[in-house]
Amino acid sequence: MNAPLTATRLSPAEAMSSFLRLASLEITPRQIEKLAVLKDKLQPGARVFVALIDAVRQLKTAGFDPVPHVPARFVKDEDDLRARIKALAEAGSSAMLVLGGGAPEPIGHYDAAIQLMQTGVFQANGVTRLGIAGHPEGNPDITRIHGEAVLVSALKEKQAYIKAHGLEGFIATQFLFEAEPVADWARMLRAEGIELPIYVGVPGPATIKTLVKYAAMCGVGNSARFIRKQALNITRLLTVNTPDEFVGGLAELHYGQPELGIAGPHLYPFGGFDKLFDWLAGVR
Questions:
Q1: Spatial CA neighbour of 182 closest among 149, 226, 221, 229
Q2: Domain coordinates of the chain in residue numbers?
Q3: In this predicted structure, what is the pLDDT of residue 6?
Q4: CATH topology for the 12-206+244-283 domain
Q5: Backbone dihedral region of 45: left (phi > 0), alpha (psi from -120 to 50 degrees) or beta?
Q6: Which pLDDT does position 234 carry in this prediction?
Q7: How many Cβ atoms sit within 10 Å of the Cβ of residue 214?
Q8: What's the whole-model pTM score?
Q9: Tell me: the pLDDT tens digits for 28-46?
Q10: 160-194 burial string, b = 16+ CB within 10 Å, else e?
């Protein structure tokens, strides 16, 4: 039997390359039009996160593992939830990412992911894996008012539900730019008894201008400071930033501190597929 990979057996470049083979990918509904590119560039069975039912069906047919978003604040009621989950499951999804959703007010009865989970609708439709959202730098809509403790308590409650119902669970984080906040946050979660594997949001290669725009839209915290600082230099706005240092740091955590449970990167192609896959080809 081969010995498990460890940081001591891998060079930094090898660790980064190996870690990226664990990557999942976030796509928008519009980007499903690039399915041929995904089939050419991604490994069969790769996890691809998406929002639309039709995209789930296309991804499944193409040989990928589609993981649709289910945002609580955009679900009207339990009948609406049943219809959505049934359709997503029939389209080929056995894993779903359950979110609160970014809307300031819910359109129906739900405003939190745990409320959707507690209906039992997911497992009733054959869903075996549930993902939940993680915020290494806090959720500005919640942390500012209620503090970090509320987020930790919510993660504990969701983990308890997942375990009690025999489901497989994972945490998918917001995107950020540095490994150190991820390490600190993961240590805190483990100390609190939260054991779910963590897939860390990583922005793919994009111009500084684009990254600043997404950081502002999504309320990304302290690790975005160096991006914003670079944006102050107008001559650098169109410079393409690549996440080599960030991914290298995450790979070091994955192999060197496995107790933190950093399971893989979750890639956001903010700069487009061409930049992302060209970069991946150069570092894998």
A1: 221
A2: 12-206+244-283
A3: 47
A4: TIM Barrel (3.20.20)
A5: left
A6: 77
A7: 16
A8: 0.91
A9: 888 999 999 999 999 999 9
A10: ebbeeeebebbbbbbbbbbbebbbebbeebeeeeb
The Cα 169–Cα 242 span in angstroms is: 30
- Alpha-carbon distance of 110 to 126, in angstroms, equals 22
Which residues have a Cβ under 8 Å from the Cβ of 16 and sit 6 or more positions away?
244, 247, 248, 251, 283
Give the number of C-alpha atoms closer than 13 A to the C-alpha of residue 265, restricted to the C-beta side: 30
How far apart CA 217 and CA 228 sit, in angstroms, is 13
d(CA 78, CA 246) in angstroms, rounded, equals 40
Q: List the helix and strand counts (H, then E) for the chain.
A: 13, 10
Give the chain's end-to-end CA distance (angstroms, integer).
25
pLDDT one-digit tens code per residue, 79-93: 999 999 999 999 999
Q: How many Å apart are CA 169 and CA 284, to the nearest integer?
A: 28
227 alpha carbon, distance to own chain's centre = 20
* Contact between 72 and 34 (Cβ < 8 Å): no
Alpha-carbon dihedral 101, 102, 104, 109, rounded to 10 degrees? -10
Non-local CB neighbours of 33 within 8 Å, separated by 6+ positions:
none
Report the pLDDT value the prediction gives residue 211, as an integer from 0 to 100. Answer: 93
Q: Please choose, from the candidates 186, 279, 268, 275, the residue with its C-alpha nearest in 3D space to the C-alpha of residue 238.
A: 275
